[in-house]
Design a protein that fits this description.
The complex is a heterodimer of chains A (401) and B (381). With 401 residues, chain A is an alpha+beta fold. Chain A has helices at 7-23, 40-53, 71-83, 91-104, 107-118, 238-253, 256-272, 285-313, 322-344, 370-377, 387-398, and strands spanning 124-127, 143-148, 154-162, 173-179, 190-196, 202-207, 216-227, 231-232. Chain A has three domains: 7-89, no CATH class; 124-237, Butyryl-CoA Dehydrogenase, subunit A, domain 2, CATH 2.40.110; 254-398, Butyryl-CoA Dehydrogenase, subunit A, domain 3, CATH 1.20.140.10. Chain B is α+β, with helices and mostly antiparallel strands and 381 residues long. Chain B has eleven helices and ten strands. Chain B has helices at residues 7-23, 26-34, 41-49, 69-82, 88-102, 107-116, 230-265, 277-302, 308-337, 347-360, 365-378; strands spanning 121-124, 140-144, 147-158, 165-171, 182-188, 194-200, 206-217, 222-223, 267-268, 271-272. In chain B, strands 1-4-5-8 form a four-stranded mixed β-sheet, with helices on one face. In chain B, helix 5 runs antiparallel to helix 6 (107-116) and helix 7 packs parallel to helix 9. The chains are: A alpha+beta (401), B alpha+beta (381).
């Protein structure tokens, strides 16, 4: 049992670090903290550079573009990206949909969809939640019925509404859970469909969240014709795909490396922010104690994640234990934004959304939109299966209760 | 022992509640916040003329209704329930407090204007280099003839864009954090040398960064004793904190009620989510936080009149409980609303945002724990 990097690992780390330093677009530097200022191209540009290098989808099977990295190398990879504050590769295609396609899809489907995901050419969104189906995802009612098209081919005719669809305003394609059989128990009548967002009948409507941002959307599906060959896996067995995807989603949400970077930023900020007395805020024993507490919690999560990664390298996909990573990871992200808001003091109050960056902040730069990020981060214990649902999963599937 | 309200106070509550129900609904508030001014002077006038609440807590010989801090508490709780942004705290509680306790020349006339709705005030105390230390001042007032010259800057002055007058803390002597040498001045917002950069705040108010550049003040601008005004500042701020605690009770009530109502409506797994035990216990914990917050708000108001040390202890204790309740109840209200709680269209998120700002208003939980310790242990030792 050891954590030492081998000489090869050290060489790999140096290679990764040098590559990011050289190849990460200058115009994106500093933008990562400012999600409202990101364009569709901003999101994709780093992804495309990584794709050219062959590093956009490290965890995939090698034949489709995976790197075959060891768990240690993957760990190094996420650490180095976080340290450099790169804009993360969006999870929807690479981390969520692709494992479903390469696990359950046909050879034809793999060849059709995986390259576009890997290369950052096609933007995917996730059509899971519905107004009446959140935590109880299996109760979804978006209906897909088989029809015969004018061209003589079979199609699904899809009707319903999806919600909380992240960044659907940019999406080229979406993966959707739809009900193909309403007469069986809920999980048994669901299919997994890929839908071209430009299809007639697809409408995307923005949902503005409490901090004033536009990240999520309603997606309305009205008589949308979807070719049968866009279904992944068997009809009525989409729940199998859905569950596999959710486990990948959950393990990805932990965001340990990003939280470590966030803690570094918080420490730097609390050295420049004043305390109540002459010293900096970090000299305040109350505040310092909370930062220390958070660091310790994050260290525990880091080692839990490393154990999970090590397990995955022996061939297991993420199991229900990934719920631990989701719960602890999101709680830590939330505490990080809490402490950052506290650190900002008076300058947590200004609301500057919509004001261009160069107009000048109110107060110090690192206090910009700290309240907005605190409000927005409340979503993390809700999405991807609420933290209450994750506890149910652990109770049932891990503890056998 | 008596925790009941007088008939007058109950009537005051009903009057305010019924006016706000008619004129301060969620949509009307939202439209006002988005308008150029960000508030409704007409509502302010109605507070003065139709409701008479701007004078409720002033003595009768000053043109008020002869009420006290309990009247303020009643008004503020109702304001919390409706998320009122108009500058009652800055004008009546803080402005009125300084004018009454500091009794500068001309206080009577200005109190008359406050009661009539013709004067509005903002309290300019915070500075960028300071956290919640009221004595940490770089802003200075230098004696010039019979009057003063004011120089410096103030951070996040809530309500300043709406104010006709600023109440400004400045150093007339001593070093940056000395307890002595602190003075308070009344400054006309339109005075030469006062400039402001205005902006909205995350909880729907407006605030300003203010710069004073050689602002000439007359002798009558001084409120309280020259160089010895820190105890006055502490007294008025303690009264303001008590009022904010009352507002928080209104905000917390709405957060809790809204969560109960939503979880009874929202069905998942074939049942209202309020039927799940884990959520029931969470709502019980929220309820206990709310009840403790209400108790501490009563306690704070009852002890406002005590000697400074006892008052500080009581107020800081209340603010600690209020801060904790705002965080716990606010965060869980959003959590139990699920995705809906994250939307701008539902009121719950707006209550959460106000609750979050109250956590740090006039000092965070940590700040007030420390102040409590100083008042409770250090003095006894």
């Amino acid at each position: 049992m050891d954590l030492d990097f081998s000489p090869e690992d050290v060489a790999f780390r140096d290679e990764v670090r040098a590559f990011i330093a050289e190849a990460y677009p200058k115009v994106l530097r500093g933008k990562q903290q400012d999600s409202e200022g990101l364009t569709k191209d901003d999101y994709f540009s780093w992804h495309r550079i990584l794709a050219k290098k062959g590093w956009s989808a490290p965890s995939w099977p090698k034949e489709w573009g995976g790197t075959g990295w060891t768990p240690t190398q993957k760990y190094i990879w996420s650490e180095e990206q976080a340290k450099a504050d790169t804009i993360p590769v969006l999870p929807f295609g690479v981390a969520m949909l692709a494992p479903v396609i390469y696990t359950f899809g046909t050879e034809e489907q793999k060849a059709r969809f995986l390259p576009g995901i890997r290369d950052g050419k096609v933007w995917w969104c996730q059509g899971y939640s519905e107004p009446g189906a959140g935590s109880d995802l299996a109760s979804l009612t978006t209906r897909a019925e088989r029809i015969k098209g004018d061209d003589g081919k079979e199609y699904y005719l899809v009707n319903g509404q999806k919600t909380w669809t992240t960044l659907a305003q940019y999406a080229d394609w979406g993966f959707f859970l739809v009900r193909t059989d309403p007469n069986v128990k809920p999980q048994a009548g669901i299919s997994f469909l890929l839908i071209d967002m430009k299809s007639p009948g697809v409408t995307v409507a923005p949902i503005i969240t409490l901090e004033g941002g536009h990240e999520v959307n309603d997606v309305f599906l009205e008589n949308v014709k979807v070719p049968i060959e866009n279904r992944i896996f068997h009809e009525n067995q989409g729940w199998t795909c859905a569950k596999a995807l959710l486990m990948h989603e959950r393990s990805g949400i932990a965001g340990v490396a990003r939280s470590k970077r966030g803690l570094e930023r918080l420490r730097a900020m609390s050295l420049s922010e004043p305390g109540d007395d002459a010293g900096p805020l970090l000299a305040d024993p109350f505040f310092k104690r909370k930062v220390a507490d958070l660091e310790i919690d994050l260290t525990a999560l880091e080692f839990t994640e490393l154990r999970t990664l090590a397990g995955e390298s022996s061939g297991k996909g993420p199991g229900p234990e990934s719920s631990i990573l989701k719960i602890k990871g999101t709680e830590i992200q939330q505490r990080l934004t809490e402490l950052t808001l506290e650190a900002a003091g008076h300058y947590g109050a200004p609301y500057l959304r919509g004001l261009p960056h160069n107009i000048g902040a109110i107060g110090p730069d690192d206090a910009r939109d700290v309240a907005g990020r605190y409000f927005n981060t409340r979503k993390t214990s809700i999405f991807g299966g609420s933290n209450e649902i994750q506890r149910n999963i652990i109770a049932k599937l891990v503890l056998g209760l | 022992m008596d925790f009941s309200f007088t008939d007058e106070q109950s009537m005051l509550r009903d009057t305010v509640a019924s006016y706000l129900a008619d004129h301060y609904g969620f949509d009307a508030r939202k439209a006002a916040l988005k308008s150029a001014d960000g508030w409704r002077p007409a509502v302010w006038k109605a507070f003065a003329n139709d409701l008479g609440i701007l004078g409720a807590s002033f003595p009768e010989d000053q043109g008020g209704l002869g009420g006290d801090a309990t009247d303020v508490m009643v008004v503020m709780e109702e304001f919390g329930k409706a998320l009122v942004v108009e500058p009652y705290l800055g004008t009546v509680v803080i402005g009125g407090g300084f004018l009454q306790h500091g009794a500068p020349a001309g206080a009577g006339e200005l109190i008359g204007k406050i009661i009539a709705g013709d004067a509005t005030m903002a309290f300019a105390w915070a500075e960028p280099q300071a956290r919640y230390n009221f004595a940490d001042l770089k802003t200075t007032a230098r004696k010039q003839g019979a009057g003063w010259v004011l120089n410096g800057g103030k951070a996040v002055v809530i309500g300043a864009p709406w104010a006709s007058h600023l109440i400004v803390t400045a150093r007339t002597g001593g070093a940056q954090r000395d307890l002595g040498g602190v003075s308070v001045f009344l400054v006309d917002k339109k005075a030469k040398g006062v400039s402001a950069r205005d902006y909205p705040t995350v909880d729907g108010r407006r605030a300003s960064e203010i710069v004073f550049e050689n602002v000439s003040l007359g002798a009558e601008a001084l409120i309280g004793a020259q160089g010895e005004a820190l105890p006055l500042v502490e007294q008025v701020v303690d009264e303001a904190i008590a009022a904010v605690c009352a507002e928080a009770c209104g905000v917390l009530r709405r957060l809790h009620e809204g969560t109960l109502a939503y979880t009874k409506e929202r069905k998942q797994f074939g049942a209202p989510i309020a039927s799940f035990q884990v959520l029931q216990h969470r709502m019980v914990d929220m309820f206990m936080q709310l009840e403790q917050a209400v108790s501490m708000t009563f306690m704070a108001h009852i002890r406002l009149g005590e000697a400074p040390g006892e008052r500080a202890k009581a107020i800081s204790a209340a603010k600690v409980q209020i801060g904790r309740a705002c965080r716990f109840v606010g965060q869980n209200a959003i959590q139990l609303h699920g995705g809906m709680g994250m939307t701008d269209e539902m009121a719950i998120g707006h209550y959460f945002k106000r609750a979050t700002m109250i956590e740090n208003e006039f000092g965070s939980v940590d700040h007030h724990l420390r102040r409590y310790e100083a008042a409770s242990f250090d003095q006894a030792a």
